[in-house]
Amino acid sequence: MLNDDVLLTIFDFYQLVFTEPYGNITTSPDWDNARWWYKPAQVCQRWRHLILASPARLDLHLVCTYGTPVANMLAHSPPLPLTHSPPLPLIINYLDHVRQASIDDEDNILLALRYRDRVRRIGFRMPAPNLPKFIKAIDGQFPILERLFIWPQTQDDDVSLTLPTSFQAPYLGMLSICYTALPVESSLLITTLGLISLELSNIPLSAYFQPSYLVEGISSMPLLEGLWIGFMAPTPTLRVERQPLHTLTGVTLPNLRILAFRGVNAYLEELLARINTPLLEVLNVRLSNQLSFTVPHLFQFIKRTESLRPDFFQIFFNRNAVLLSANSQDKVKHLSLEVGCRHIDWQVSAAAQVFHALVAILSITEHLALGYDEHDRSSEHHNEINRMQWRNLLRQFNGVKALHIYENLISHLSRSLQLENGESPLELLPELLELVYYKGGDASDAFNPFINARQIAGRPVALIHVPPQPAAQ
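The structure assignment produced for this chain is given below.
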C-alpha cells in the first residue's frame, strides 16, 4: 500500500496537469480544471482525508460555474480535518465562449460574491447588459483575490461598465477588463503591488485617463510582466497632456516583458517618454489613423531598450492597416507596429512618416519582406501610389541586403525601382544583394531594368524567383 507521502506526490503531479499557466491573460483560462480533486476525494475515505488535510499544498478550490448549485455547495462542502484551516477558496468562473449564464447562475454569482474573503478568482464573459449587477457587487475589499477578468462579449453603447471606486484587491496578480472603465478616483493601481499582468482594453472614451495617471499606477508594480493598454475610440490629440521631456521623471519597470498599446501616437509618445523597460521582449503598437505622425520618443524608447533587437522586418498592407513586424533570428516577434487606415496610398504615406523616425534602427536591418492583401475594388481610386511614395518608404531601409516581394506588390515595386531623370542606381537600397519575388509565373521582365542598372554600376543583384508551394494533399 502506498504511504501518505507517495500519495501526496502523486496528487501533486495530478494537480499540476490540470493547472493552467498563471501569466497569460491573452487566452481564456480553463478554471474548471481546478475541480480536479473532486473525483480522487471520492475514491475512499483515506484519499479524501489526505486531500482535505493538504489544501494549501494541493491548491484546493471550490468552483462556482455554469450549473453549479452554489448554495448547496457551500452548505455541504467538506469540512477540513484541521479545524484551524480556513474554508476552501472560491473560483467564480463564467468565461466560456459558448455557454451562457442562466437566471439561476446569475443568482449563484451574486451569492458567491458575498463571500469576498474566500474569492480567489473572478471571471466573466457574457453580454454587456448582464454585467452591471455583478460589477456593482465587486465593491469593497477582496483580501485574497488573485485574478479578475471582465470580458463583455460585445460592445453595447447603451451599457456603462465601471469598476466601483471602493474595489480593493491587495493581492491581485492579474487584471484584465474590456469595455470597462477604471475610475481615476480609484486607488486600485497604486495599492496593488503584486500585479503581474494588467490589461485595460477598449477603454471607453468617457473613461480616458492621462498617461501620467497610468505611469503613477504602474510605477508601484515592480513585478509587472505584461501591460496591455487600448482605447475604444481615438483619443483626441488635444486631450493628451504634453510636458517637456526634461521635466518628466522616468519610471523603470524591471520585469516588463510585453507592452501593447492601441490609441493615438501622441498618447504613446507621452507614455514611452516616461518609462524604461530593460527586459522588454515584445512591443506591440497599433496607432489610430491620422493625417500626420511624429514618434521621436518611440525611436528613443526602442534605442534604449537593448533587448529589442530585431533582424528581419516585414511590411504588410491589408484592407484595414499597414503592419510593420520585426523578428529576431530565433523567430521571436519583438516588434509589431500597425497603423490603422484602409487605402494603400494612405498606408504607404503613413508608413513612410512613422518609419522615418525609426530610420536609424531600420537602416541596419539586412532582410525586408513586403506583402499586400488585395484591397476592395471600390477603393481603387485610392490605390494608385506614385513612384516617389514607394521610394520614400524604401529609403528607410538602406542597409537591406535581401528584399522579398510578394506577388500583389510586384507591379508597384518594379516600377518604383526603375531609374528616372539621371538617378543613381545606388540611390535606393545600395547594399542590396538579392531580390526575391514570389509569384506563380515568371516576372523577371518587370525587374530587369533595375537588375541591369545595378549590374552596370558594378553592384549586381541576384534576382530569385520563388513559385508558390504546391498544396498539401
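Interim note for the steering committee: The chain has 14 helices and 18 strands. The first helix runs from residue 4 to 17.
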